Amino acid sequence: MQETNSNAIRPGTVGEGVLVVGVVLVAPLLLYAINLASVERLLYPASNLALAVYLFTRRSAWYTGHIVLIFCFVSLARRLVDAQAGWDAQNPILLTPYLCGSLAGIEFLNYWLRRQPRNLGPLLIILLAIGYGAVLAMIDGRILAAMVDILTSVLSGANWGPFAPPFALRQEIPARSVGKGIGHFFGAMEIEGFMDVTEFKKRIDEWIDVFRNTKPAKGTSGPLIPGDPEHQEEAKRRKEGIPLIAAVVNDLLDVSKQTGIPFKIS
User: Is the pLDDT of residue 209 over 70?
Assistant: First the structure.
């Protein structure tokens, strides 16, 4: 009699793959297209968690693919919701990959409780990495968001936080205003506050020379330094003109229609 392992991972099916892609990516896009993206604020983490539980209990290989795809597209799903429902710093969508990935912790505990567990080192590293990512998502994101909000809005005298007006005309303007419009921040450093200007220019020239002379990676024309893509694109557009994206043109025409400001395309 041949003994079978009930805990073995089984190959995923095509249907499971279609279901994963549909829940992770297609559903948010469809709901956004029909102006119902706001429901994804709670539906996205709930539906993905339910799907993760299903795949995990069935020992499907698509469970891993599901987690990877969530990490790839969770930011897109969050932006689609924010575009229609307004920005929300506490948006639970960002917790989706960690909620679904936490199921792997159950398997880790089962593995730990075995009589002679092997390769605990890599498993501990993976578990710590997941925990570290969750902490960064909760802490660093808020710190960076606060820095951006203070520098671009509070410092410039613009509306900040929930009082910032939306970019899209179709969104509701906040009832309260704490500044003027949308702010921007442009920073400049005084080199003399750090070192002699001549010495800095000498060092930055050497930095540029070293990177420009670096051996090109296979299939590339060589390394680029900040400013190179912009200079190349500027030369191309001065010769060929500036390309217009149809979606952007349509948005500009929509703005022109609603504001009464003429917009003509030659």
Answer: yes
Is 92 within 8 Å of 42 (Cβ atoms)? yes
| Rounded Cα gap, residues 22 and 38, in angstroms | 17
Average pLDDT of the chain, as a whole number: 83
pLDDT tens-place string over residues 159-179: 988 888 876 556 677 788 888
Bridge partners of residue 10, in order along the sequence = 60
pLDDT at 7: 58
CA 256 and chain centroid, separation: 31
Residues 6 or more apart in contact with residue 253 via CB below 8 angstroms: 263
Contact 63, 97 (CB under 8 A): no
> Which amino acid is located at 179 in the chain?
G
Count of C-beta atoms within a 10 Å radius of residue 54: 15
List of residues 6+ apart from 5 with CB closer than 8 A: none
Which H helix or E strand runs over 105? helix 103-112
- DSSP state letters, 179-200: SSS---------GGGTS-HHHH
The two most distant CA atoms of the chain are separated, in Å, by 82
pLDDT at 250: 87
C-alpha distance from residue 157 to each of 148, 154, 161, 167, 187 (Å): 13, 5, 12, 18, 16
- In terms of pTM, does the model score above 0.70? no
Q: Which has the closest alpha carbon to 168: 264, 81, 255, 108?
A: 255
